[in-house]
Automatic annotation (TrEMBL), chain A:
Biased composition (Low complexity): 308-322
UniProt organism field: Streptomyces antimicrobicus
A molecular-function term among this protein's GO annotations: ATP binding
Pfam family, one: ABC_tran
InterPro entries in alphabetical order: AAA+_ATPase (IPR003593), ABC_AA/LPS_Transport (IPR051120), ABC_transporter-like_ATP-bd (IPR003439), BCA_ABC_TP_C (IPR032823), P-loop_NTPase (IPR027417)
Name of the protein: ABC transporter ATP-binding protein
UniProtKB/TrEMBL annotation, chain B:
Family: Belongs to the binding-protein-dependent transport system permease family. LivHM subfamily.
Organism annotation: Streptomyces antimicrobicus
Subcellular location: Cell membrane
Protein's name in the database: Branched-chain amino acid ABC transporter permease
PANTHER family: BRANCHED-CHAIN AMINO ACID TRANSPORT SYSTEM PERMEASE PROTEIN LIVH (PTHR11795), HIGH-AFFINITY BRANCHED-CHAIN AMINO ACID TRANSPORT SYSTEM PERMEASE PROTEIN LIVH (PTHR11795:SF371)
Automatic annotation (TrEMBL), chain C:
Membrane topology note: Multi-pass membrane protein
Native species: Streptomyces antimicrobicus
Name of the protein in its database record: Branched-chain amino acid ABC transporter permease
InterPro entries according to UniProt: ABC_transp_permease, LivM-like
Ranges annotated as spanning the membrane: 27-45, 65-85, 97-117, 129-145, 196-219, 225-246, 258-274, 280-302, 309-327, 339-359, 366-384, 429-447, 481-501, 521-548
Keyword terms: Cell membrane, Membrane, Transmembrane, Transmembrane helix
Subcellular location: Cell membrane
Pfam families: BPD_transp_2
Length: 322, 309, 603
């Protein structure tokens, strides 16, 4: 459960390659010229204070936003600008404030995750063509395997909403894994967890890595991230401050300063955080007016920039709002 | 009669009536993300409220004296109904699944419409609405019917009042805050229940003014008038960018213009002779809605970014 | 420690302070039920002027049959509560709550009958002694049932320092809790599995009874009987539910799904055979059309969570298309395609409109769809009205509609004529009933198969959380468009049959709200009332919503008003509908497992 679990440092293929990603909302730049690469078999951490643009950056990677400048490549190909296409290309994600399909069973949640890797369409379902039962059975088997992997197989028929918090987080990971990703993005996977649960999550993430899936994780819990990650990047005010091994980042005084709240080139004040929030909320509406407006308000104590982006969507339609 | 300036004026007048009703949709939507289907019925009830005042006044009362009283009566009744609906039908469902309040709204709409139909005296068919004296007025080649004069004055005045209210008063600013983020607004000490109620009430008041204008314009009110007008007012709100109060007015004007102009000019397009005229106006308004949703779903004005704190 | 508080609240709850020992209460309820049954063999009134002839000693008539059934049900449940061998299977979920609901059925049906007799004939003097005996027996049953003990919830008394209004609200809440507890039943223990043939026999028997009940409801010849039927059936169903029998049956049907499905359709197909003339078969066809369309709408609303307020217009598109190509004298096209071609064209046209409406709107937030479909429904009607050759192109014959749509002739089988098959005469409407039943079967299969597949899961995922669903790789727009177009297509299918059944297609049949179904508001209500996302829900809801306005002509003017109010109340009290879907059931089940604070405090 320390950094020693790192696997052999074989020359690895680059899974994710973000170059010069910049995201502007109107006059406001939330993410400025960020480069980040993730190689296969790696666990990379992304840290940064409130309003640093971590989740905005995440959303740029997953097709929720289209970056104003720069490009994101997955295994060499530029990512399409739609979140469902990104998933089918091979990047899966979880959400900071858990977004399971509450009224579906645990198994069904994972089966939904299989969506992009299966093909049977309406006709096949209606006519029950020969391929239908075969594919359905294969999906179920795969889904049960994943539930076994996260230790929820015994609850396959429970409703997702009835799971305890920690298991909901796990289920979200299983659902993401169901799409056979080459890279999984975890948005604060341990938010709201107790120390035991956090340790279990750590084990789970190592196990995912051992399956050959690269991991990019946003987290607030420093100890967790420095234990876990092969490399860590720190984002401050939308810019990448430093990237390096856990040790390098940990000892960097600018990171310490940014976290302890010492002024650093005019550290992001509450005002700027609010700006980013407002701009993100607005952008999300522009980009995907179809987004359903029912995000539950975030109540985790680890307040990052996400709750703003997510919970404001649910409510903002900013009236006439002069 | 078919000259362009005249048609433009007609369209703008019709549109400003749509705009007055659209404000209610847009304001409620901006704050609680609810399409208040019953708003069309609130409009209709405003019309009957105004009419009731007229019927209660001694016959022979001068219209100039009666009109202000009728407007007040219309506003009071429409507002009361809207507040009651919000308090007893919508508020308990605020955290319910999204479909629940929409279905409630449909039920409310039917109940209100049928209540008027069943219990308002002689409301089973159109009821005659009193008319302003004088007119029509001629301005160059443009004729303004007497019934439209009220609209000509009421619409800009209402808009100016609304603009003042939203920007300059505490309550108005509270409304903006609630629209942005109800949870935070609550934490900041804004009474969101009260704000939501005010949004419903204000919307109803403007709809009531629109209803009096409707009565004066067409010389009658009917229990059914809320349905189609509500639909078009909503279209106007979407056109202007739902949630945007100024957008509602602009959307109303554009819709009114489009409807009037298509009514008159579509039949002059070769091959479409039979698709013009009054009876197709609604259809064209609807086609416009579809086109807007297709090409500019955020509406003409879009949703404005919030002012930064 | 709770005795004082519960005592106070008990008074509030019961008011009359029925304090009977448990044994006496049970005996009273059971005996009262039996006495009510006997009273049905007495004369209740002196004249046959009241419909149903309740004047005969020794033979029940009309409403008396309903009272008899509910009384018998009470007695059976009562006897079962004594643990009598051979009757225990009646109440796997506990007998007391079932007795209470059965007693309610008895009481209200009897009271309604008595009131209705004196109202129709002018005064209580028109009741014969038998009627009074029945009322007294029903009251005794009810009081006995009411005094049965139940597990009282622990409640906080209202804080005397609160304002009067707050105290009132608190007490009202407590009273509700008590009433809820009084009628609560536990989940039935799982049944011992029977041999498969026995289970299938049980399913067949239950379906037979259901057909009987349904046929009785449809064929009630006068309004009083129908109201009585609704009262008895409503409380009776609740009693069966509380007894745990419904749950037992659901488990059985879940185990033998295909048998149950085929059985249900065989039972439905038997309906026209029970009819000697076409009067009620007409009603049957129209119920079937309405319920089928509601089921199609359930794909859109219940599974995918899209609010379609103009659904009836798709029915209209199908009906108009079929009518136009089927050789009606009003059709400008002058073609007479065979039925299969007409129905396919109807479905296809509906699908095209579904795509035209869906494509621009489904990219946007859900609320836009609601308003656009509402607009489409209205525009459809207006356009059909206009295309009469004067205000627009001459296609639809305007408000008069397309009349004289010829009967269907399929493989030489003329649906317009009566046929005698194996001794049964099947009239025109019975023919169409069977045809429509085939369509219903198709729609049920489409619903079931699509719901239990990759695409169905994607629909539900979209309904639950669209952003998350997209992040799981679901192309939300595409999947929603498929659901919307599929729903439209199914409506078009039903519309094509409807055009032939009713001979005439007019614009006024397809409006948003109207006193007569089908219309969009009623369709939506059928889905919501029945239970979103289920198959049986919209079918039951549709049947009820069609029958009620049809049978209760007396309500006339206030029907739509009542309907609107009912929608509001329904959303407040039971948003999941009569038949909640499996997921909600799971959830309820979970609730029941959860430890709740209860204290035993008998009467």
């Amino acid at each position: 459960m320390t950094t020693t679990t790192t696997t052999t440092a074989a020359p690895a293929e680059t899974v994710l390659d973000a170059r010069g990603v910049t995201m502007r909302f109107g006059g406001l730049t939330a993410v400025k010229n960020v480069d980040l690469t993730v190689r296969s078999g790696e666990i990379v951490g992304l840290i940064g204070p409130n309003g640093a643009g971590k989740t905005t950056f995440f959303n740029c990677l997953t097709g929720l936003y289209i970056p104003t400048e720069g490009e994101v490549r997955y295994k060499g190909t530029v990512l399409p600008p739609k979140s469902f296409k990104v998933t089918s290309a091979g990047i899966a994600r979880t959400f900071q404030n858990i977004r399971l399909f509450n009224n579906m069973t645990v198994l069904e949640n994972v089966l939904v995750g299989r969506h992009t890797r299966t093909k049977e369409g309406l006709w096949s379902a209606l006519l029950r063509l020969p391929g239908f039962h075969k594919e359905e059975a294969a999906s179920r088997e795969k889904a049960m395997e994943l539930l076994e992997f996260i230790g929820l197989a015994h609850k396959a028929e429970h409703l997702a909403r009835n799971l305890p918090y920690g298991e909901q987080r796990k289920l979200e990971i299983a659902r993401a894994l169901a799409s056979d990703p080459g890279l999984i993005l975890l948005d604060e996977p341990t938010a709201g967890m107790n120390p035991q649960e956090t340790r279990a999550a750590e084990e789970l993430i190592f196990a995912i890595r051992d399956k050959g899936i690269a991991v990019l994780v946003i987290e607030h819990d420093m100890r967790f991230i420095f234990n876990l990650c092969d490399r860590v990047a720190c984002l401050v005010q939308g810019e990448k401050l430093i990237e390096g091994t856990a040790g390098e980042v940990q000892s960097d005084e600018r990171v310490v300063a940014a976290y302890l709240g010492e002024p650093f080139e005019g550290a992001p004040g509450a005002e700027e955080v609010a700006e980013v929030e407002a701009a993100e909320a607005h952008a999300e509406e522009d980009h995907e007016a179809e987004a359903p407006a029912d995000t539950p308000a975030d109540d985790t104590p680890a307040d990052d920039d996400t709750p703003a982006a997510d919970s404001t969507t649910s409510t903002t339609t900013d009236g006439e709002a002069k | 009669m078919h000259e362009l300036p005249q048609q433009l004026v007609n369209g703008l007048l019709l549109g400003s009536m749509y705009g007055l009703v659209a404000i209610g949709y847009t304001m409620v939507y901006g704050i609680v993300q609810l399409i208040n289907f019953a708003h069309g019925e609130i409009f209709m009830i405003g019309g009957f409220g105004g009419l009731s005042v007229w019927l209660l006044l001694p016959s022979g009362t001068s219209m100039l004296l009666a009109l202000p009283l009728m407007i007040i009566g219309a506003i009071v009744i429409a507002t009361l109904v809207a507040i009651g609906a919000e308090r007893f039908a919508y508020r308990p469902l605020r955290n319910a699944p999204r479909l629940a309040p929409l279905i409630t709204a449909i039920g409310l709409s039917l109940a209100l419409q049928q209540a008027v139909w069943a219990w308002y005296p002689d409301a089973k068919s159109s009821v005659v609405f009193p008319q302003l004296p004088g007119g029509p007025f001629h301005l160059g080649s443009v004729t303004i019917q007497t019934g439209d004069v009220f609209l000509l004055i009421a619409a800009p005045v209402s808009m100016a009042f609304l603009g003042f209210f939203v920007q300059k008063t505490r309550t108005g600013r509270g409304m903006q805050a609630t629209a942005q983020d109800p949870d935070t607004a609550k934490l900041m000490g804004i009474n969101t229940d009260r704000i939501i109620m005010i949004a419903f009430a204000l919307g109803a008041a403007f709809a009531a003014i629109g209803a009096v204008a409707y009565g004066l314009k067409y010389g009658e009110v009917q229990f059914k008038m809320g349905f189609l007008l509500g639909l078009k007012a909503f279209t106007a709100a979407v056109l202007g960018g739902i949630g945007n109060i100024y957008g509602a007015m602009i959307g109303g004007l554009v819709l009114g213009l489009a409807e009037t102009l298509t009514t008159v000019y579509v039949s002059e397009i070769p091959g479409m002779q039979q698709l013009g005229g009054q009876s197709w106006g609604n259809t064209w308004a609807f086609v416009l809605l579809i086109l807007v949703l297709l090409f500019r779903p955020q509406g003409l004005l879009g949703q404005r970014v919030a002012d930064r704190a | 420690m709770t005795s004082t508080t519960t005592d106070i609240t008990t008074k509030a709850a019961t008011g009359d302070g029925i304090a009977l020992p448990e044994k006496a209460a049970r005996a009273l309820a059971t005996g009262g039920g039996a006495l009510t049954v006997i009273s049905c063999f007495l004369a209740w009134t002196w004249t046959a002027a009241y419909p149903g002839n309740l004047t005969v000693y020794g033979y029940p008539g009309g409403l008396q049959w309903l009272v008899l059934v509910s009384g018998a049900l009470t007695t059976l449940f009562g006897l079962s509560s004594y643990g009598i061998k051979g009757l225990k299977w009646l109440t796997p979920g506990g007998a007391d709550a079932a007795v209470k609901f059965a007693a309610l059925a008895t009481l209200w049906t009897t009271l309604f009958t008595a009131w209705s007799i004196s109202d129709t004939l002018g005064g209580l003097v028109n009741l014969e002694p038998g009627g009074f005996v029945a009322v007294a027996a029903a009251l005794a049953t009810y009081l006995g049932a009411r005094a049965l003990p139940f597990e009282r919830p622990v409640l906080d008394p209202a804080d005397p320092e609160d304002s009067t209004w707050e105290q009132y609200k608190h007490n009202a809440r407590n009273r509700r809790e008590i009433v809820k507890a009084a009628y609560a039943a536990k989940a039935p223990a799982p049944a011992k599995p029977l041999p498969a043939w026995a289970e299938i026999l049980v399913i067949a028997a239950v379906l037979g009874v259901a057909l009987g009940v349904f046929t009785y409801g449809i064929t009630t010849p006068y309004q009083e009987l129908f109201i009585g039927f609704l009262i008895t059936a409503g409380f009776g169903f609740a009693a069966l539910h509380k007894a745990g029998l419904i749950a037992r049956f659901t488990t059985l049907t879940a185990r033998h799904r295909n048998v149950a499905l085929v059985g249900a359709f065989v039972a439905a197909a038997a309906f026209p055979l029970t009819q000697t003339d076409d009067q009620y078969a007409t009603l049957g066809v129209n119920i079937l059309i309405f319920a089928t369309v509601a089921l199609g709408l359930n794909i859109v609303v219940g599974l995918t969570g899209l609010l379609d307020l103009g659904y009836v217009a798709f029915l209209g598109v199908g009906a108009y298309t079929a009518a136009l190509v089927s050789g009606s004298p009003n059709s400008p096209f002058g073609v007479h395609l065979p039925f299969w071609a007409a129905i396919l064209l109807g479905a296809l046209a509906s699908m095209v409109f579904g795509v035209l409406i869906g494509a621009p709107t489904l990219r946007l937030r859900g609320d836009y769809l609601a308003i656009v479909t509402l607009g489409f429904g209205e525009i459809f009607r207006i356009s059909m009205n206009n295309m009469d050759g004067k205000s627009g192109p001459d296609i639809t014959n305007g408000p008069n509609g397309i009349a004289g749509v010829p009967n269907v002739n399929l493989f030489g089988f003329d649906f317009g004529a009566a046929h005698t098959i194996a001794g049964f005469t099947i009239g025109r409407f019975a023919n169409y009933f069977l045809l429509m039943l085939a369509i219903t079967f198709i729609v049920v299969m489409v619903f079931r198969r699509s719901a239990e597949s990759r695409i169905g899961r994607a629909w539900v995922a979209i309904r639950e959380d669209e952003t998350a669903a997209e992040a799981m790789g679901i192309n939300g727009f595409r999947v929603k468009l498929i659901a919307f177009a599929l729903g439209a297509t199914l409506a078009g299918l039903a519309g094509a049959v409807q055009a032939h059944v009713n001979y005439t297609v007019t614009p006024d049949q397809y409006v948003f709200a109207n006193a007569v179904p089908p219309n969009s508001a009623f369709l939506l209500a059928a889905v919501v009332l029945g239970g979103m996302g289920t198959i049986s829900g919209p079918l039951v809801g549709g049947a009820l919503l069609f029958l009620i306005p049809n049978k209760l002509q007396g309500m006339g003017d206030l029907q739509l008003f009542a309907f609107g109010v009912a929608l509001i109340v329904l959303m407040r009290l039971r948003p999941e509908g009569i038949i909640p879907n499996r997921r909600n059931q799971l959830e309820l089940h979970k609730d029941l497992e959860a430890p709740t604070v209860l204290s035993k405090a008998g009467a």
